[in-house]
Amino acid sequence: MTIPKVLTIAGSDTSGGAGIQADLKTFQELNVYGMTALTCVVTMDPQLWSHNVTPMSAELLESQLDTVLNGIGVTSAKTGMLSTVEIIDAVARKIEERPLKHFVVDPVMVCKGENEVLNPDTAEAMLEKLVPKATVVTPNLFEASQLAKTAPIRTIEDMKAAAVKIHETGAQYVIIKGGVKLLHEKAVDLIYDGQEFELLESERIETNYIHGAGCTFSAAITAELAKGADVRTAVKNAKAFVTAAIRHGFPINSFVGPTLHAAQRLYRD
């Protein structure tokens, strides 16, 4: 029996809904073997649910990457929260040493519920050193505006303009996630390959239980690519996976509710 091997280079969400925890749950559901390189640990104040991010050292991250990339090998890999420029530099060096068949960059810049970029310098470093190596980059509206250096994105035309600018930096495919701030009646994601735009529409699900949805989406793309899907098929399968996960999201305390990663397996709706 062979199973595709995939890697997530991301932060640990102590609450379990996002980050490496979400990635591993997604990998398991989609029948790929998940491995990890931890970039930081995110903890929350139990009373206020404000976030505290503690980065790993770049040296420790490089040791983790050596373990997986040189000691085992992977079919595809993804990034999540990369909280310092030094960590981004370390990831870029290792990817250059061991080029990947598929590399998915999820440019996480804020924790859910927070409004400010964790480290403003990381957006520029990501744009310069990781996005050009990406098979797929998956920003949300805020992240896309940061990478494209545009005003806040509110319309599909805004999404298209940002996608063009991000693609020009070297990513093969740009996937911009519409989210709740997009002025549209449906949940819309945009695919751009440098030539064609494609809109993926699904029902807009009214829920607050979306913690980890972006991580889950990018992890699902990574898994599908590892299994041999082309990019557009991988994105469409991932959208179906995360839509089911959002539809069956649930609360874990009075502050937050994650998506249900097993939803597509458990429910057929």
List the helices and strands and how they pair.
Elements: E1 5-13, H1 19-29, E2 33-44, E3 51-55, H2 58-70, E4 76-79, H3 85-97, E5 102-105, H4 120-129, E6 136-137, H5 141-148, H6 156-167, E7 173-177, E8 187-192, E9 197-202, H7 213-226, H8 231-247, H9 263-266
Parallel strand pairs: 1-2, 1-4, 4-5, 5-6, 6-7
Antiparallel strand pairs: 2-3, 7-8, 8-9
Helix pairs in contact: 1-7, 2-3, 3-4, 5-6, 7-8
Report, as a whole number of angstroms, the end-to-end distance: 31 Å
Number of helices: 9
The poorly predicted ranges are none
The main sheet orders its strands as 3-2-1-4-5-6-7-8-9
The overall average pLDDT, rounded, is 92
Can you characterise this structure?
It is a single chain. This protein has helices at residues 19-29, 58-70, 85-97, 120-129, 141-148, 156-167, 213-226, 231-247, 263-266, and strands at residues 5-13, 33-44, 51-55, 76-79, 102-105, 136-137, 173-177, 187-192, 197-202. It starts with a strand and ends with a helix. The mean pLDDT is 92. The chain has a nine-stranded mixed β-sheet, sandwiched between helices. With 269 residues, the chain is an alpha/beta fold.
Please outline what is shown here.
Helices cover 38% and strands 20% of the residues. A nine-stranded mixed β-sheet has the order 3-2-1-4-5-6-7-8-9, sandwiched between helices.
Jot down its keywords.
single chain; 269 residues; alpha/beta; 9 helices; metal-binding; Ribokinase-like; kinase activity; PM/HMP-P_kinase-1; pyridoxal kinase
